[in-house]
């Protein structure tokens, strides 16, 4: 497992706008995109915060699991568990809070520095938080041999059931990606996802490709087979620019974002997207 790559750590619980340092990436895309996404969240009564108290994320995951709602959330994987090395230096989680201070969505990821190795080399240990316990892993996804350098593995994507009708997935995924790419000069972003997820769901997250598969026999989640959805740095910049130019395009006065525009933004994600049950987070 890699050492943390140098980066600026925001204050715990910072507002999304206060957390940005714009150390990397095209500011002419990232700045207006995040401002407009934040405007939409405000219109929905949601405050977005950047956090690195991973104990709180684990506790939130456990509370939701205890509710026993079918499909509400998976048990959090080790990438964002502080007992498995997640820290303020190498990972982040972002939450949306409603006016009562309740968490209504989470999303995050962990950054790895693999200048001389690949996901193909690292995934067996990575999936278990870097621990060697004799675990097995079978890989047939060819893309794993290309994912190298400074990479981010997405995790902890969840939307509270009563907020899923708002179809927030494309908005949340781009906001998190813009933040991560401004903080780290990422070469690749990827997620490990259920192999049978429809491509339009992957599209909502902004990933241009999915490759099959990685098999973890006898994992804590059972005999687990996952696919790899990934995006390169340039593809991610292009996607953010396209999203800004099309979905988030507004009149000359951004503050006048209309109800019809909010409706059109929310409609880009299919009703069938079951946020929180798509990726192993």
Average of pLDDT: 87
| Proportion of residues in helical segments | 25-40%
Which descriptor suits the 3D outline? globular
In DSSP terms (H or I, runs of 4 or more residues), the helix count works out at: 8
Number of domains: 1
Percentage of residues in DSSP E strands: 25-35%
- Count of individual beta strands: 9
Instruction: Characterize the biggest β-sheet.
Output: 9 strands, mixed
How far apart the termini lie comes to 20 Å
What class do helices, strands and sheet pairing give? alpha+beta
CATH topology: Aminopeptidase
Gyration radius over CA: 18 Å
CATH architecture: 3-Layer(aba) Sandwich
Low-confidence stretches: 251-278
Short description:
By secondary structure, the chain is of the alpha+beta class. It has one domain (14-266): Gcn5-related N-acetyltransferase (GNAT) (Aminopeptidase).
Question: Can you describe this structure?
Answer:
The protein has 281 residues and is α+β, with helices and mostly antiparallel strands. The protein has a single domain, classed as Gcn5-related N-acetyltransferase (GNAT) (Aminopeptidase). Helix content is 30%, strand content 26%. The chain has a 9-stranded mixed beta sheet with strand order 1-2-3-4-6-7-9-8-5. β6, α5 and β7 form a beta-alpha-beta unit. α5 packs across α7. The protein is globular and about 50 Å long.
């Amino acid at each position: 497992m890699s050492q943390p790559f140098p980066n600026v750590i925001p204050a715990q619980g910072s507002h999304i706008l206060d957390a940005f340092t714009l150390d990397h990436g095209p500011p002419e895309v990232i700045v207006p995109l995040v401002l407009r996404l934040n405007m939409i969240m405000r219109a929905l009564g949601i405050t977005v915060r950047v956090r690195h108290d991973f104990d709180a994320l684990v506790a939130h995951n456990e509370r939701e699991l205890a509710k026993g709602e079918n499909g509400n959330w998976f048990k959090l994987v080790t990438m964002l568990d502080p007992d498995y090395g997640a820290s303020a230096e190498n990972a982040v989680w972002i939450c949306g809070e409603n006016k009562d201070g309740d968490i209504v969505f989470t999303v995050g990821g962990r950054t790895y520095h693999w200048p001389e190795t690949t996901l193909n080399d690292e995934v067996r240990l990575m999936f278990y938080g870097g621990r060697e316990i004799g675990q097995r892993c079978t890989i047939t996804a060819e893309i794993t041999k290309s994912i190298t350098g400074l990479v981010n593995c997405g995790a902890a994507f969840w939307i509270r059931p009563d907020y899923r009708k708002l179809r927030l997935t494309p908005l949340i995924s781009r906001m998190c990606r813009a933040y991560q790419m401004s903080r780290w000069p990422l070469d690749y972003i990827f997620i490990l996802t259920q192999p049978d997820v429809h491509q339009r769901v992957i599209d909502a997250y902004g990933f241009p490709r999915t490759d099959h598969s990685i098999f973890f026999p006898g994992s804590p989640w059972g005999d687990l087979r996952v696919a790899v959805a990934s995006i390169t740095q340039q593809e991610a910049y292009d996607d953010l620019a396209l999203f800004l130019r099309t979905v988030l395009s507004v009149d000359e006065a951004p503050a006048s974002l209309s109800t019809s525009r909010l409706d059109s933004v929310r409609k880009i994600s299919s009703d069938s997207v079951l946020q929180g049950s798509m990726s192993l987070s």
